[in-house]
Structure formats: C-alpha cells, structure tokens
Design brief:
Number of strands: 2
Strand content: 5-15%
Largest sheet: 2 strands, antiparallel
CATH class: Mainly Alpha
Number of helices: 6
Strand order of the largest sheet: 1-2
Order of helices and strands: HHHHEEHH
CATH topology: Arc Repressor Mutant, subunit A
CATH architecture: Orthogonal Bundle
Distance between the termini: 30 Å
CATH superfamily: Winged helix-like DNA-binding domain superfamily/Winged helix DNA-binding domain
Oligomer: single chain
Structural class: mainly alpha
Length: 149
C-alpha cells in the first residue's frame, strides 16, 4: 500500500476489501477521539453517543440506545452508570413498567455535552478529516450509512 507508514509490508489483496478500510478508518477515529476528547473529558466514544441520544430523546431507554448504536445492552448499563455517577444523567424507573429504566440529561449533563460538542467541532472534526475536502466528507456521510442500514 502506497503512502503507508509500513511501506515494506505487502498487504496482498487487503486494500481491495472495504472492511479493511472501514476497520482502519475506525481505528484512526478512535485514536483521534481518545487523544482529543477521551483523555480530556474521561469519556468513551459510546458515552458521547449515549449523551447525545439522551439529549435529543429525553426518557430514552438503555435498550433503545443499545439498538441505535449497536452495542450490547450490558455495556450500555456500565457506561450509563458511570455517566450517572458523574452527574450527567438521571436514570428513572418507568411509570408504566417498573423494570424499565428511562434516561434524562441533568443540567450538568447538558453543559458537559455542549462543551464536548464544541471541542468536536473545533478540534476533533478537523483533526480526523484533515486530508479530506468538504465534498469528500459530505460524500462519506451520505454513503457510509448505506453499509449499516
């Protein structure tokens, strides 16, 4: 693969596989997220997704979040409990089903998500997409959902 930091490695036909590029892209995303966001805010990328979904869907269930971001319900439980302990969300029992939990952002959670979002807009996005044009980013945002929808 040309322009690879590992130019002496023969990648065989891996560059012809979409999954290879998706995996490497995801790895780059995690590296940038961890460096710019994760360490600064002690936040995992899935937790950011939980906060955004909770902000825009007050009362959302952990199961709905698990389905929306395609992670195991057990992981959502661990991540939401951390967010609750940090004061970013409240977990309330459903009025109609005592087994069901509903998530709501706290005032602190709203402030926090706005702060993280600002960093994502000003530093994370540009760092992740520094080699892409605005049109290329728009194209990726349009075509990538076709893979997982």
């Amino acid at each position: 693969m040309k322009n690879s930091p590992l130019n002496d490695i023969d990648y065989g036909d891996l560059p012809n596989h979409l999954g290879f590029h998706i995996r490497r892209t995801y790895t780059a995303y995690l590296r940038v997220f961890t460096t710019l966001v994760g360490r600064r805010f002690a936040l995992k990328s899935q937790q950011y997704s939980i906060l955004v979904l909770t902000k825009h869907n007050p009362g959302i269930t952990p199961s709905a979040i698990a389905s929306a971001i395609e992670v195991k319900r057990s992981l959502i439980a661990v991540l939401t409990e951390d967010l609750r302990q940090r004061g970013f969300i409240n977990i309330k029992t459903s009025a109609t089903d005592g087994r069901e939990k509903r998530l709501h952002l706290t005032k602190k959670g709203h402030t926090f998500i706005d702060e993280v979002r600002q960093l994502l807009l000003t530093e994370f996005g540009p760092a992740l997409a520094k080699k892409l044009s605005a049109n290329e980013i728009a194209t990726l945002n349009k075509i990538l959902p076709k893979i997982y929808s």
